[in-house]
Amino acid sequence: MNTQYEELKARLLEINDLESAAALLYWDQSTYMPPGGAAARGRQLATLGQLAHTKFTDSAIGRLLDALRPYEEQLDYDSDEASLIRVTRRDYERAVNLPAAFVAAMYSHTSEAFTVWTKARPENNFAAVQPYLEKTLELSRQAADFFPGYEHIADPLIDWSDYGMKATSVRAIFADLRAQLVPLVQAIAAQPVADDSCLKQHFPEDRQWAVGLEVVKRFGYDLERGRQDKTHHPFMTKFSLGDVRITTRVNEHDLGEALFGTFHEAGHALYEQGIRMDFDGTPLASGTSSGVHESQSRLWENIVGRGRPFWQHFYPKLQAEFPEQLGSVALDTFYRAINKVERSLIRTDADEVTYNLHVIMRFDFELDLLEGRLAVRDLPEAWRARYQSDLGVASPDDRDGVLQDVHWYAGLIGGAFQGYALGNILSAQFFDSAVRAQPAIIDEMAAGEFTTLRNWLTQHVYQHGRKYTAPELVERASGQPLNTEPYLRYLRTKYAELYQL
Ligand code: ZN
Predict the structure, then answer these.
(1) Distance 291 CA to ligand 1 centre (A)
(2) Rounded distance from Cα 121 to ligand 1 centre (Å)
(3) 265 is known as an active-site residue
(4) Of 6, 81, 205, 265, which residue is the catalytic one?
(5) For the sheet containing 236-240, what is the strand order?
(6) Within 13 A of 217's CA, how many CA atoms are on the CB side?
């Protein structure tokens, strides 16, 4: 028993308790809190955040990490102890490298920028946000410069959400993906548009709720360690490994919204619920990166939940739940409806084929802005041109153009978007590896069974939490570095059949 290690763990547990309490306050704010609680809640969240930050950046943590170096070096890289020390050191160095005054200036600027954006977007007023965005870009560059020695200025910013992924390699992967997706989208767009009117009928909220929950229980979402509540913007949150919650929004006139939103958040929750229980309360007890996290939400939402095998089993049950709406709609019609591809302006409404093009262009714009190759004032025009070239549509205004996403108006420029597309690529890479190891997964899905798939994911991805970085985890789980081949094969096979390409 190493006493310094035990002391480090005890300190980290206390910090984790503060962060979990803040997460609970945030969950309450987004679900049940009456509007009158808003001002005090904002202050309470700031107080808890400040306390956790102060405790974590305490020089005593730095001294413990230094003292533990020889102990760490004796241990295997894979051991829980070495992993905990390694991951904590990474977080600690990141936290102390940014001076407190800079962090305060950054928060005060982004909260002001956010307020201006909430008004500027409905007014279609890019000029109002332009000076704020210019300042954000300057702060983003400064933030990166607190981490000298990077290859690309975006690398330190990407490290926050997708540690270990490098701007240059992600750009190359995305360029290749884009080159293959643009013609695929064009080929689909040349075919008749799929009819999704069967999804746009009236579907009572309580029954939609029950169906979604029934399915995610079948996926393996454990309601003894989770629950689902209503919210405006769906999310997953965790207060401990024994309490991993999801939230959902129901639209009575669009069956897809709650259904696939629920599958998506449950995918995030399955990841967290699958982490080894003895990591609870430590920095290891989380998903390892935004890309890997998103790979799990997309795997359950799209590869499983929008797949034919899944609906072979569940569609008759859905019809029984909604006999007036779907009783006379054939499985094939329904399957086409839920996989409708459409070139659109809004990222969050995009289907699984076009979605990546929305993400890749935002990532490219971030690099261009950071490199100084694109000026903020030229962004609206660059945005229109890229939509036109990649998707064949362009917004006449900025509201549904460059102003649509909150990310750059509530945070830094750099590292904000790549996780969404990395998640799609990885969803197929993990699924492909799982099926190669366990071919019975496909037949099981068609029988409404997911145990073999979930067990494979738990063993190769979930249980490790943050022990391995995303590149390490992908290599260990699939035997290869991240690559787009399984994902492109998945899209081509599925959509060639759907659209007779
Ligand atoms: Zn997600």
Answers:
(1) 9
(2) 23
(3) yes
(4) 265
(5) 228-230, 243-248, 236-240
(6) 10
How many Cα atoms sit within 13 Å of 479 on the Cβ side? Answer: 6
Tokens of 215: 């399915």
Residue 92 near residue 61, CB atoms below 8 Å: yes
Residue 352 in contact with residue 302, Cβ under 8 Å?
Answer: yes
Which residue in 324, 318, 221 sits closest to 266, CA to CA? 221
Q: In this structure, how many other beta carbons lie within 10 angstroms of the beta carbon of residue 80?
A: 16
474 CA from centroid of ligand 1 (Å) = 18
**What distance in angstroms lies between residue 440's CA and the mean position of ligand 1's atoms?**
27
Distance 268 CA to ligand 1 centre (A): 7
Distance, CA of 417 to CA of 357 (rounded, Å):
11
**What burial letters (b/e) apply to 413-428, b meaning 16+ CB within 10 Å?**
bbbbbbbbbbbbbbbb
- Closest residue by Cα to residue 234 from 80, 5, 96, 27: 27
Q: How far is CA 477 from CA 282, 450, 469, in A?
A: 23, 19, 12
170 residue type, one letter:
V
> Which pTM does this prediction carry?
0.96
Distance 231 CA to ligand 1 centre (A): 15
Burial, 123: exposed, middle or buried (Cβ in 10 Å; 0-12, 13-18, 19+)? exposed
Q: How far is the CA of 441 from the centre of ligand 1 (A)?
A: 23
Domain 167-499 class, CATH top level: mainly alpha
Please report, as a single letter, which amino acid is at residue 85.
I
Q: How do the pLDDT tens digits run along the chain, 501 residues long? A: 699 999 999 999 999 999 999 999 999 999 999 999 999 998 999 899 999 999 999 999 999 999 999 999 999 999 999 999 999 999 999 999 999 899 989 989 999 999 999 999 999 999 999 999 999 999 999 999 999 999 999 999 999 999 999 999 999 999 999 999 999 999 999 999 999 999 999 999 999 999 999 999 999 999 999 999 999 999 999 999 999 999 999 999 999 999 999 999 999 999 999 999 999 999 999 999 999 999 999 999 999 999 999 999 999 999 999 999 999 999 999 999 999 999 999 999 899 999 999 999 999 999 999 999 999 999 999 999 999 999 999 999 999 999 999 999 999 999 999 999 999 999 999 999 999 999 999 999 999 999 999 999 999 999 999 999 999 999 999 999 999 999 999 999 999 999 999
CA atoms within 13 A on the CB side of 23: 16
| Backbone φ, ψ for residue 270 (5° rounding) | -60, -40
Distance 265 CA to ligand 1 centre (A): 6
CA of 294 to the centre of ligand 1 (A): 5
Q: From CA 26, how far away is CA 388, in angstroms rounded? A: 39
